Every structure is written in C-alpha cells, then in structure tokens.
Fold this protein.
Amino acid sequence: MNLPANHGGPGDPGLTWDNRFAALGSAFYTRLEPVPLPAPYWVGTSPGLARELGLDARWLESDAALHAFSGNTSLPGSEPLASVYSGHQFGVWAGQLGDGRALLLGGLQTPQGPMELQLKGSGLTPYSRMGDGRAVLRSSIREFLCSEAMHALGIPTTRALCITGSPEPVRREAIETAAVVTRVAPSFIRFGHFEHFAARGQFDELRQLADHVIEHFYPEALEGTGFDGNRYAALLQAVSERTAALVAQWQAVGFCHGVLNTDNMSILGLTIDYGPFQFLDAFDPDHICNHSDHQGRYAFMQQPPVVYWNLYRLGQALQPLIGDPAVAMAALESFKALFPAEFMARMRAKLGLTTAHDDDDTLIDGLLHLLADNAVDYPIFWRRLSHAVAAGDFEPVRDLFADRVGWDRWMLSFQELQALTGRAQDANLMLKINPRYVLRNHLGEQAIRAAQEGNYSEVHALQTLLERPFDDHPGFEAHAGFPPDWARHISISCSS
Ligand code: AMP
Ligand code: MG
C-alpha cells in the first residue's frame, strides 16, 4: 500500500511510509498496537542513522519521538503488526514462534531506499507464548550498541535508531526495568518465516513470500540464471552467498552470535537478534558465549557449519517451490565454496596482504592454532600486529605469547613466504580492518551498570568509540585494553 507523505500536526515527523510487508496480507501477521510504557526516558539515539534515514535530528530528540518509540503514541502512516514465523531452536523444530515482543511499524522511504522500523520490547503479541513481551534495559543496551558497532565494522546488520527506557518493572532472574530498541532494516524476514508456511503446507503464502523477497531484495534471482530459470533455486543460492559472506566476517572479527536458531537468521544476510553475543577476548575456538548453550552448539568455531545447517533448513522450506531436491542441494553448494574464500580474503586483509598464495591457508591455520594455544587476546593481537608492521618492531606482539619459540617459528615461515612471493604487508590496510575498539562484554557491562543507576554517559561514550572503531580516541586507551579478570564471570543467556 502506498501512502502519501504525512505533514503537519504535533508528533508528525512527515515520514513517507510504504508498508510493503503489511501489503502481503493477514496470513503473515496480526495487526495490533504497542502496549504503552509509563514515564519513558531517552537512553540513546543514533544521530548517524537518523541522518542516513533523512530524519530530522531535532524531531528525534523530541518528546513526540520519545513517546512514539516507546510505543505510547502511533506515528501517522504506520501500521503496526507482529509477524508470524516458526523455526528450529537448538537443532529441534520448535513450531510457531513469531514476533513475541517486537512490532513492525512499517516501511519508510529513505535516502537509503526502503527501510522498515521495528520496536523491540513493545509488549505482548499473539506470539508471546510464555513471555511478557518486554525487553530489559540491560539487553536493549547491548543490542543498541552492538547493532551500530557492527555497522561501523562494515558487517551487515540490522541497525538501531534509538533506545528508550521506562521504570516499568520486568521480571527476569531479578526484577529489572523495561526498554525498547527501535530497529531498522530493509526487511526483518527470517529463514523461519519460510519454514512457517512450508511446515503448514501453505504453499501459496510460501510462494508469495519468496516472490516478495526476490522482487525487493534479490532481483538478480528473477531470471533463475544457472538454474534453468528456477528463480527459487537462484534465491536460495543468493541467500547462501550473502550468508557465507556474513559468517566469514563474524569469524574474522571474532564475533560469536550465541543463538543461531533458524528464526534468528535474516533472509538478507544481516546479523539479527543480538542476545548473548560476544566478541572474543582471548582467542578460543570452542568459546560458548550463551550460558544456556550447554552442548556448545553455537560455540565460536561451530558458527560456519551451524549456519550451513540453517541454510539447509531454508532449502527444505523452499523445496516445494524449487522442485527437484538435487537442484536445492546445488544451490546450497555455493556456501561451501564461498565461505572459505570469503574467510581467507578477510584473514589475508587482517595480515595486510593484498594478494593470495596457496600456502596462506596453512599459514593462517597455524596462526589461529598459536593464538588458541597461547590464549592470546584476539583484538589486541591484530591491533598490535598492525602497529608492529607500521613501526617494524614486533616485540609487543611477541610479548603476547607464552610460547615465544612458537611465535618466532610462525614469523619465520611467514617471512619466508613473503620473500618467496615478493609480497609486502600494507600497515594502513591492517589499521583499517583490525579494530582498536570492539564491544567486549565487560565494556557493555560497565555501561549497563551505570545506566541501571540512571547514568547513560558510558553508553554514549562507548557509542562514540564504536562508531569509529579503527580510530585512536585519546583518553580512552583503557577501553582498548585487556579485559579485567571479572569479565570471565559475566554470564549471559538467551532471551532477556
Ligand atoms: P529469541 O531467543 O530472543 O530469538 O526469541 C525466540 C522467540 O521467543 C521469538 O519468537 C521471540 O519473539 C520470543 N520471545 C523472546 N523473549 C520474549 C519475551 N520476553 N516475551 C515474548 N516473547 C519473547
Ligand atoms: Mg529471535
């Protein structure tokens, strides 16, 4: 449905809405209004994103915006709805899930193209199951900061426009308070949306959803190139490719998502649903960031295979549209080829290398083993290495290893390969790909503790650092330092 721009009236920011998801029809969602929150207050906004969206910065600071993004008033032209999806959770079919605490407000026409706005934590929906429809301040600060941090790192993600809080009590392990994050993405469609209609045998809706996604986000799949005109196979391949590129970025930067259920997989290859995520401190391939993940299904090194497993479920869901299972399998193959290529490209860039050599695999594998064996801090290693290449002094890097001989041996083989290939390391490239600042758990935790006391300055400080993670920010050296001992005891589990 195309609605004209709305102008005038208090609280009307004159947004131009184009609610394409709502236009899919009632099989896909339930329309409802958010549940109001008492005494809302601002925790933070993202002026950079507001600018990208063409929003008036003054309006974003207004009471009208505060109430709209807390779910207390509606934005003229929005059509709030909770979408229905299903999914596999921890490897098991979970049946119907859906937006249990999120509401899609609708789509906006922006200078970046169409963008959807979604409130997370806006109250009960028909899909809330046992939940209360709320999100707590703690987890909302993590989502807000990490969304914008990932974007600044160049990693595809849903964005966060703002976060509001309320004194409304929310019961978790202890009593906490409520918050709402306004998320922004071209679409919030998940693998689980497809699984939902496939599992119910609603193949007309399945086709409608696939056609919607192809039309708006994967127009290149329309011709079905490479698949005898089968556009749904081409879609599966394109999604596999975007997803492979995404996971390669996670692995290279040391990001652990924590809950890679199929309902937390974006059809656009975006990082979505920030929960117990963690940026690695010491490099540990087996690191489990989700306290509830007892089997380590979503451990750091398991992410690429588990994401392939999720793509396979998407392939099964698309099967009724694709037809021949062998064709679906062929479409999925692209992940297996692309993930290693994308990962190696990232790792080479982290090493400052602009050309490839056959021995790079072995070399990088050896380095990762060395980092794991010595429990070397992952971000600090790469940042020190970048400075070492710039300054020609590798001692600060060597100091990070208990096994100095191991490091010397690796350096020797690296230098031999460099001599053989005539390659040089590009220190500038390294400083632009190896961040100085990442949202480590303890940094988030410090900001959360202050915010819970009503002090949001650390949220804002972190936001500033993470918006420009490759820059040096004088006075904030400690934020780029080693984690304190207590960081190891921070425990974060699924929904909060
Ligand atoms: P998550 O683990 O956050 O991806 O959530 C899985 C499912 O549970 C989704 O359908 C969520 O909407 C729903 N959910 C999580 N937390 C809550 C909550 N507090 N209230 C209602 N639904 C929730
Ligand atoms: Mg989720």
Summary: The radius of gyration is 23 Å. The chain has three domains: 22-191, 222-434, 441-489. The pocket of adenosine monophosphate (ligand 1) is lined by residues 97-101, 127-128, 131-134, 259, 264, 273, 275, 494-495 (CB under 6 Å). Confidence is low (pLDDT under 50) at residues 1-8.
